[in-house]
């Protein structure tokens, strides 16, 4: 019997061997040679990826190298990705954008969770440039969700500027698969002109088509208040998270809550008032109604929130 060349084992055999190893042992084994290292990057071994892009405590060169490695070897393999980054840093924003761009080559993607470590962008001398990066960032996300079959999406702690376009895309390509949509922010809601002029009926219809949602979070304002009746099509909805940042210029009648409660029997409403003294003072007349399915309530009196404290 001839000598076995372990460095030249077929990829199928290596994958079988790797399935019997723990993640730590798998990484150690992959350092044996380049051929074994290549076998490590298989979708079977990378179901999820948590990528934290922050320059705190490390050099930018190291962070950039980590992101480059992830984009080349991991981002296109995972089903679930959690991307966190420092939104105050233009460099971190650019790296995060490169990750989203790499996701466009992922055919397995099911869950996208994006967390900005601060609830607002710094308004410094390069603010306009950073704002343009955010626009590019969001358009890249819209391209990613067009791939379809998304099961969960969250954009944490900062408002998704093109939120209505996002809902349209998710309803068009993932209406049957989407179970979780989290868009509630911690800062004031600011709408661009496109948001103000978008056809309401179209957005309402898109929201109504997300019939398999189990968790939904939104910023509650004059735009999203009008979308609440769309929840009546979501019979499986279990958790509704609403953040209020500004005084509401529209009343939500008890009939609306009664209908939602009727068609979503398992629904729990979690209401958070953020730095809005007027709403907090008149909560009993502005928001609370006999049929509201309220189970959790928080009032935060602060201008800038450290999102790390919320974990």
UniProtKB/TrEMBL annotation:
Pfam families: F-box-like
GO biological process, any: positive regulation of protein ubiquitination
CDD domains according to UniProt: F-box_FBXO33 (cd22104)
Limits of the F-box domain: 3-49
InterPro entries tied to this protein: F-box-like_dom_sf, F-box_dom, LRR_dom_sf
Signal peptide span: none
Gene3D superfamilies: 1.20.1280.50, Ribonuclease Inhibitor (3.80.10.10)
Protein name: F-box domain-containing protein
